[in-house]
Amino acid sequence: MKKLSILLGALAIVGMLCGCDSKKESDGSSVAKEVSDTIDYGIGVTQTRALKKAQQQVQQLNEQHNKDLEDALK
Fold it and tell me: In angstroms, rounded to a whole number, what is the distance separating the alpha carbons of residues 2 and 8?
């Protein structure tokens, strides 16, 4: 519950920063990106994406290995 209140507080701060003048828009979007990344990590999105990427890489390597074996047997 404490993590949720911290995340909500961070979102509120980002909301305030995004409402600032346009000169600091890049800073606000940078902070917004960091907060978004933190939230994604906290709810497991980052880990899920990393897992899917790793699984795709293993599958690609496996397919290449199988293709190499098939070619060697011909």
Answer: 10
* Close Cβ partners of 7 (under 8 Å, ≥ 6 residues apart): 38, 39, 42
Alpha helices of the chain — where are they, by DSSP H?
A: 2-18, 25-43, 45-73
Note the pTM of the prediction, 2 decimals: 0.52
Q: What is the pLDDT of residues 5-44, one digit of tens each?
A: 665 666 666 555 555 544 555 567 899 999 999 999 899 9
- 74 alpha carbon, distance to own chain's centre: 43
Tokens at 28, concatenated: 């606000």
Maximum distance among all alpha carbons in the chain?
A: 67
10 Cβ contact partners less than 8 Å away, ≥ 6 residues apart: 35, 38, 39
The single-letter DSSP state of residue 23 is G
